[in-house]
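thought: fold this chain, then report.
action: predict
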Amino acid sequence: MKKVQTWFKFSLLLASFLLSGTLPTKVSAQDTITLDFCYQQVQKTYPLTRQATLLEKSSDFRTKNLNKNHLPQFNINGNASWQNEVTEVVIPLPAGLPQLQGPVIPNDQYKLTLDISESVYDGNVTNYQKRLEKFNLKVDKKNVDASLYLLKDQINQFYFSILLTQQNTTLLSDTKKQLELKLSEVESAVRNGVLLSMNADLIRAEIINLEQNIYELSMDRVASLHMLSELISTPLDEKSSVVLPVIPNPVQDYENKRIEYELFDIQRNRVDLMKNMVTTKWNPKFWAYGQVGFGIPGYNFLSSDIAPMVMVGARLTWNPWNWNANKNEKKIFDIQGDILKNQQETFDKNLRVTTQKILSDIKKLSDLLFRDQQLINLRADISRTASSQLTHGIITSSDYILRVNDETHARMIMEIHKIQLVKARISYLYTLGKL
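observation:
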């Protein structure tokens, strides 16, 4: 009995160390859940999926605002002031002649104007800003896609964890049925005085131990199902079963299709655009402007009467020399591009290392499965022999239980290797962005 508990706990620890997962959808009792179904559900229900639409709307508003840069800009300006001194016109005349009185300018002044300006040529700045906005949107959406893709790894962990507890529960249930059948034989032998009652008690105790282990597995499975259900925002029936995916051995043609790898390319193109955008600082800018309104005084400062004010004009700005600041800024963008290229190469290198490890695991697990089947065949023969020996009183129930446990343990190890192999194949596809 202690040996079965040890084997059972060993299997759970090994599974926990190597596996974990998640799934989605509305299923009824006895329905089955597939891994693809989980992927589809999380793409539909996860809150992050709505972010792409929000990003597009936000970008659309920013682009519309940039388009308004070429439209006339209107500003209403008002001004009221008082000053302690104003300009006086004093004309000195020879003595005896009457003094000339010049215009009197009031100490208080008032103006109300409508100022209009329109960019005729902004040095191509707006055009670059709109192109940059498109790149920013691409980067943001790719980041969302990358985050959603990472959810598949969480699903894998939950899914295969559930699958392992499901398979082990089935194996332990089969072992329990086998012991229950044997218990009937032993009880008959005890009644006939062929075997001691202790032999029946040992089998009963082992059956209870198996029931406890089955219950523990079932509760772990239900907990994982609940977590998976929460992740995919889909109710899952506790009686639903998961299906082991059929995944062939991957073709070993390294091709990096990860979204993060594409994201590096987009970011580098954005940096190139920002580098070219620096040139707009050299370009001349040309505006047309106008002003209409009323003032006291108006443009004629020597008049103290309210007067209309109308002005039109044009303005040109150009800074042809900025002491190589633009060249230095371009060099900064060159360095940023090199940094992104280095990060992309590092990301790719790490994926290559990871895929080599996964391919090694795939080969190892394939070889182990062949050995597992040989071991199970031997253990099954030994169990059958032990069953016959117990019936004839050659061995005790304790010896028989040990042989049965050996077979059960071998079958559990084989199930672990089967699930690990499929998970490794899926991990290979996931790592390369092919899921």
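thought: worth noting. The beta strands are 32-33, 73-82, 108-121, 241-242, 285-296, 307-317.
final: tokens above.
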